[in-house]
């Protein structure tokens, strides 16, 4: 058993972290009902999530994503606060496996207008991504969040912009960061985005409208809506997202495959070595049985052969009898 002082110390750390960062509960049951079937995630989520990523760094690897940040840079976001948002984006990039075949990142900046800072196809390494983030400037006025989401769907999450085809089964994820109330409608456009297969996380800061965050986010809301009191502590969310986006290899964590475990990011399946086949339980293997094909003779052909043999034998016997008679006759002469 762990010493009591150790448990108390861990509890105090958890409490201090919780005072700065909160998960929002779903709250209103009618709100959940209003969240359409579109919120059912089409993307595989990792089956195991770690509460302490530092202890699993050797096995922790973010699942491949097409990830688009949608960031609010309206007038209410002061220049110093916007710099904090950029630091948060850079820290997030550091936690991801960035690359052509790994995670691709784009940023959509919005206020009263929307600006795509860079697309999923533009940068495939961390240094280039972080340099591009440093060049982002605030847009100043308005909070057109709905327009920003629609622009992300129509222009950032497209194959022309670097999003992988649906057949690749790469998760599409949008992370929205805002500190205000949207000046346009977000519910319908968010539902359409989710229906297209995009998983939405909503991060609210300070004066953010809670109901709008819930209308935008995927379900369960407890996993997709976050709130921080100030931009000064937004960096704390980096570890929260690492827990969510970091997929542990289920094959490395333990499996029940008799021969070979194959990781599919969301789960795993079993395979057998050459010469074996997978049993019905999809876990164990059996030796592949060689089928011996028995060729059955045509009974008609067999019968005809027997008749021919009998006729031949009869003819030989008759001929032998004639020869014997001739020999006897010659002997008498």
Automatic annotation (TrEMBL):
It is found in: Secreted. Pfam families: cEGF, Matrilin_ccoil, VWA. InterPro entries: cEGF, ECM_Assembly_Org, EGF, EGF-like_Ca-bd_dom, EGF-type_Asp/Asn_hydroxyl_site, Matrilin_CC_sf, Matrilin_CC_trimer, VWF_A. GO terms for molecular function: calcium ion binding. Keywords: Disulfide bond, EGF-like domain, Repeat, Secreted, Signal. Residues 247-286 form the EGF-like domain. Residues 1-20 form the signal peptide. Coiled coil: none annotated. Residues 66-241 form the VWFA domain. Disulfide bonds join 251-261. One of its GO terms (cellular component) is extracellular region. PROSITE patterns: ASX_HYDROXYL, EGF_2, EGF_3, VWFA. This is Matrilin 3a. It comes from Dicentrarchus labrax (European seabass).
